[in-house]
Amino acid sequence: MNERIEKIKKELENIKIESLQQLEEFRVRITGKKGELTQLFENFKTVIPEKKKELGKELNLLKNAVINTINELREKFENQETDRNTIDLSLPSKQDDIGSRHPISIAKNEILDIFKRLGFTVANGPEIENDWHVFSALNFPPEHPARDMQDTFFIAKNANNEHNNILLRTHTSSVQVRVMENQKPPIRVVCPGRVFRNEAISARAHCIFHQVEGLYIDENVSFADMKQTLLYFSHEMFGKNTKIRLRPSFFPFTEPSAEMDVSCTICGGKGCNICKHTGWLEIMGCGMVDPNVLESCGINNKKYTGYAFGMGIERMAMLKWQVKDLRLYFENDIRFLKQFESVT
Ligand code: DAH
């Protein structure tokens, strides 16, 4: 019996096991039902009582050593196995999720790029504005309904001083005022930005949206110049076959004023659901800068004339990609945003 114990001991000391499978074979051969150690315990029953104590101790020590070795080796092999899984260099690398531009940014950049090609520069202004830059300098009379709480988010109201009347700008036309106050003509700027209106949020309206404002002031600037610029813009933005039409309108800051439509980007003018079967889509307001506005901003209105225009970026994006619900632009749902991955 001693010999067999010694044999197992030796094997434990010089153990050469290199895989989980070999370990399992070893386990079965030593501690299995008919294993070498199991048999030794069987034989132990027949050992004479005087030897039982010593031999029993030895067998138990051996049994513990075997179990410990098996457990240690098993742990080692299992860890190796997971290591190999996590650092398998032959696996293709994990794809990093890269973000995509927001459709509003894509549309904004496209609009700005078109005007940059015509020599316009980009100007920015504050979102928190005063009454002067948003309304008064733009020829809004004091009682104009746009100043009403219904439309404008007021921050601090001071009836006596329009410069201390603080509000969130309702349009980016305020930036043209700041530019005119600080630059001398010729002026050619486009002003992108966020605007705010006190509107209930729905598929068709939102209290936050984006606009691009345009302004061109120089000597002898005419309505025809404006028309040509906006025609060029429409061709670049919506395609060479796009037609434009100007309908008379009213804005306090332009005279004459117009709304501009483009031929429907979906049906090409034949009539469809998107253009409500008119063949036309309204895309912006525009007009010749009112001489009162030039004067308010310190520009000689005898010498200079100019045109201005303003468009909604959401509207442009909507027409380009047929997004029918404005709220999608603000929810940042990854399933919506991912669809624009390939656009730029
Ligand atoms: N500010 C106008 C709006 O928010 C848009 C606009 C119309 C801007 C005509 C202009 C313009 O510069 O000439 O609805």
Explain this structure to me?
Strand 7 and strand 8 (254-263) form a beta hairpin. The protein folds into 2 domains: 2-86, no CATH class; 103-340, BirA Bifunctional Protein, domain 2, CATH 3.30.930. The chain has a 7-stranded mixed sheet, with helices on both faces. Strands 2-4-3 form a 3-stranded antiparallel sheet. Helix 3 (36-44) packs antiparallel against helix 4. The protein is an alpha+beta fold and 344 residues long. It has helices at 2-13, 20-31, 36-44, 49-86, 103-117, 131-134, 173-182, 223-238, 291-296, 313-321, 328-331, 334-337, and strands at 121-122, 128-130, 154-156, 166-168, 187-196, 208-218, 244-251, 254-263, 280-289, 305-312. It is built from 12 helices and 10 strands. Bound molecules: 3,4-dihydroxyphenylalanine. Residues 171, 173, 213, 251, 254, 285-287, 308-310 line the site of 3,4-dihydroxyphenylalanine.
> How much β-strand is present in the residues?
15-25%
Give the SSE order as H and E letters.
HHHHHEEHEEHEEHEEEHEHHH
Going by CATH, the homologous superfamily of the largest domain would be Bira Bifunctional Protein, Domain 2
- Flag low-confidence runs: none
